Amino acid sequence: MKIAIGCDHGGFPLKEAVIEAIKAAGHEVLDFGTDGLASVDFPDYARAVGEAVQQGRAARGILMCGSGVGMSMAANKMRGIYASVCHDTYSAHQGVEHDGMNVLCMGGRIIGSELAKEIVTAFLHAQPGGSERHARRREKVKRLEQRCLG
C-alpha cells in the first residue's frame, strides 16, 4: 500500500518513527512534509494527504500535529476522508475495522516515537470489515456526509 503522511512542526518529532514503521510493515511512503520544526499551518498538510487518499494515490493517510486534533478536524472536512486521533493501538485498528477510518492522526506532543510505531503498525495491519451493523453504521456516516457536504 502507498501511505501518505504529513505533519506540521508539532508532529514533526514523530515523522521519522512513522516512516520507519510504514516501511517495516512493507508499505511505500508518500511524504507531504513538513521537513523541520519551523512553524507551519496544519491545514495545508491535512489537505495534501487528504487529496492523495481521495484521488487514490494513497490507500491511507497518517497526519501528525501537536495533539492530533487539528489535523483530524481539517481532514474530516474533506469528502471521503474518515480521520481520527488515536493514541492507542486498539483505537487504531478498531477505527479501520469497524468505522472505516482511512486517516490516522496522532499528536507529537502527546505520545512518543515507540508508541507511535505500534499505533501505525496496528492501523496498517487492520482491514475494513466488521459485522453487518458496522457496515450499516458506516453507510449512515456516508449519508450524513453527503447531506452535510452536498
What does this molecule look like?
The protein has helices spanning 15-24, 42-54, 69-75, 89-97, 113-125, 132-149, and strands spanning 2-7, 28-31, 60-65, 83-85, 103-107. The chain has 150 residues and is α/β, with parallel strands linked by helices. It has a single domain (2-149), classed as Sugar-phosphate isomerase, RpiB/LacA/LacB (Ribose 5-phosphate Isomerase B, Chain: A, 3-Layer(aba) Sandwich), CATH 3.40.1400. Strands 2-1-3-5-4 form a 5-stranded parallel beta sheet, sandwiched between helices. Strand 1 (2-7), helix 1 (15-24) and strand 2 (28-31) form a beta-alpha-beta unit.
Outline:
With 150 residues, the chain is α/β, with parallel strands linked by helices.
Give the N-terminus to C-terminus distance in angstroms: 30 Å
Number of strands: 5
Q: What is the 3D form?
A: globular
**Whole-number mean pLDDT:** 95
CATH architecture: 3-Layer(aba) Sandwich
Query: What is the third-level CATH name, the topology?
Result: Ribose 5-phosphate Isomerase B, Chain: A
The number of domains: 1
Kindly report the name of the CATH homologous superfamily.
Sugar-phosphate isomerase, RpiB/LacA/LacB
The secondary structure category is alpha/beta
For the sheet with most strands, the description reads: 5 strands, parallel
Q: What low-confidence regions span 5 or more consecutive residues with pLDDT below 50?
A: none
Helicity level, as a percent range? 40-55%
Q: What oligomeric state best describes the polypeptide chains here?
A: single chain
Strand order of the largest sheet: 2-1-3-5-4
Total helical segments: 6
- Strand fraction equals 15-25%
Query: Could you state the order of secondary-structure elements as H and E?
Result: EHEHEHEHEHH
